[in-house]
Specification:
The chain has helices spanning 3-18, 46-56, 71-75, 99-111, 131-140, 172-175, 187-197, 201-209, 229-245, 251-255, 261-280, 283-287, 293-300, 304-346, 353-372, 378-399, 406-446, 450-461, 463-472, 475-503, and strands at residues 36-39, 60-65, 78-85, 88-95, 116-121, 142-143, 146-147, 152-158, 179-182, 216-220, 223-227. The protein is an alpha/beta fold. The chain has a 5-stranded parallel β-sheet. A two-stranded antiparallel ribbon has the order 3-4. A two-stranded antiparallel ribbon has the order 6-7. The chain is globular. The two termini are 36 Å apart.
Length: 504
Amino acid sequence: MNIKQAKTELKNTIRAYLSTDEQGLPRIDFVKQRPVLLMGPPGIGKTAVMEQLAAECDLALVSYTITHHTRQSAVGLPMIVQRKFGGVEYSATEYTMSEIIGSVYQAMERTGKKQGILFLDEINCVSETLAPTMLQFLQCKTFGTHTLPQGWIIVAAGNPPEYNKSVRELDVVTLDRVKRIDVREDLGVWKEYASRRGIYGAILAYLDSKPQNFYQMESTPGGKEFVTPRGWEDLSQLLYSYDALGLTAEQPTVEQYLQHPAVAKDFAAFLALWQRYNRDVDLAAILQGKVEEPTIRRCAAAGFDEKLALVGLLGDRLTQCFAQCYRLDQTADRLFALLKPFKELVFLPKNNPMEQFSALLSAQQEKAETMLTQSVDKVEKQIQALLVQQLEADREALLSLPEPSPESVFATVKQGFEELVNRRKDAVQQTSDQLDFAFDFLEAAFGRGQELVWFVTQLAGGYYSSWFLAQFGCVRFDQYNESLLFEKRRNQLLDQVNQLQQSQ
């Protein structure tokens, strides 16, 4: 299955393992809760999924790469103690707390969460001396004499032998005690993730035209040549930083992340084209409806890759606008959800209205700071930061009140909310206008050609664009999308007819 399906399966497993019956007892006994074993190629998001699941299920997370451990760090260090056996005193060996189990207890103290996920990566690459200990842990959930706390779920990950020379094949005894999930790479699923994460536009546009280069793993006389989703995502972060610093990423830089010379060379060429069009074409003018005729003629005469880069650039600019609308919309919704309980507290006679606002602001500031230290989605952090920013602006307005009363304090905070709603409204209108201007340009330059198909497909598949179109609509997108769906269905029917004719 792909990583999205694996995530759903893991979430269902977590729910099943942590569920209790009417008496509060686990529906599945702790010892019968099989560790989950994720097996799949490197770099497809197994570790990232663990972070997402922990955040979504409100669980603590402890991650270990098991190849970094010895038997001593897993089981604990030996120490001599005095014990009596049959009335005779002997020196006996006991063990200090396992480093791994100790980290679990530390995570419980740090987060205040009694339930969590213990993630052990590269489980099938353990050393020979540690292998029996790991088997005992998978079977009994103990390292030596130290047991994993109840409420904690073991998830292990490994790579098939063709990807790692250090792999030790797991025997049937071990495999019969785990819940195995085989995971494979999937570009479509990754693009859903990439769209929300804001992966660099050139990468998404390139993979639209060269999907076969999304994941590569080849053995050559010089060693492994590979490209992984992790490589694309990390390269995306670098490209954003380079843009901010005015630097240019050329082929040698790309090869540091895409360790497959042919793919790195091909993408570097496309990236150079992307950056040239970003410099030479006034995208802001296009999205303001002020494009000049020479620009239209130049774009109409461009080559295939140049047109692909141009459409990708337009989509990327619009995606930034869609994402900003999404952030403002979510911020307004969350602030509205805070206003009702805040109003009730402010108008209680015993409460000081300014103290109630200070408590509200402090709670949201603390939440924002906590999110910075956790594996929380970047967009969620941005939304929380916008919420705090709005409340801090409200605080400045409240400080100017001569005599704060419950009525004036709530009215001031409500006014701040209304200003935020107006900002959202303005952003939505501006983005809708820009989307229409983009359609104007594409129609003028390319008519109803394949470029419009690329653009509409990009809008339909993007996370923020899909959200925007579902919430606020766009008549021209609906027209083109309906036409594309009709054409797609027509082609499918023609293919079925041809297959029937060939079979007769």
